[in-house]
Amino acid sequence: MPDHNMSLPLSKYTVLDLTRARAGPTAVRQMADWGARVIRVEAIDSAVNTLGFDRDGYDFQNLHRNKRSITL
């Protein structure tokens, strides 16, 4: 099966997502959509989303699509 991600413009890059405000995650999501490997980093005590909406909600899921995540 071919790797379709390799044809995207940012497929050679890895981006570390340390953002908190709405504009940051949105910009990084765009990089992920363009093929970058995005690793989202969040604190272990961030049970409540810093943007104020439910993690299982459509807005959170859309904002962080195509991202891997790690909790430190």
Describe this protein with a few key phrases:
three-stranded parallel β-sheet; 21% strand; alpha/beta
Give your account of this protein's structure.
The chain is of the alpha/beta class. It has one domain (4-71). Helices cover 24% and strands 21% of the residues. The protein has helices spanning 23-33, 58-63, and strands at 14-17, 37-42, 67-71. Strands 1-2-3 form a three-stranded parallel beta sheet, with helices on one face.
Radius of gyration: 13 Å
For the biggest sheet, the summary is: 3 strands, parallel
What low-confidence regions span 5 or more consecutive residues with pLDDT below 50? Answer: none
Number of helices: 2
Structural class: alpha/beta
Overall body shape: globular
Mean pLDDT: 83
Count of the domains:
1
Distance between the termini: 34 Å
Tell me the strand order in the biggest sheet.
1-2-3
The number of strands is 3
Helix content: 10-25%
Give the DSSP E fraction (strand runs of 2 or more residues): 15-25%
SSE topology string: EHEHE
Task: Outline the fold blueprint.
Elements: E1 14-17, H1 23-33, E2 37-42, H2 58-63, E3 67-71
Parallel strand pairs: 1-2, 2-3
Summarize this entry quickly.
With 72 residues, the protein is α/β, with parallel strands linked by helices.
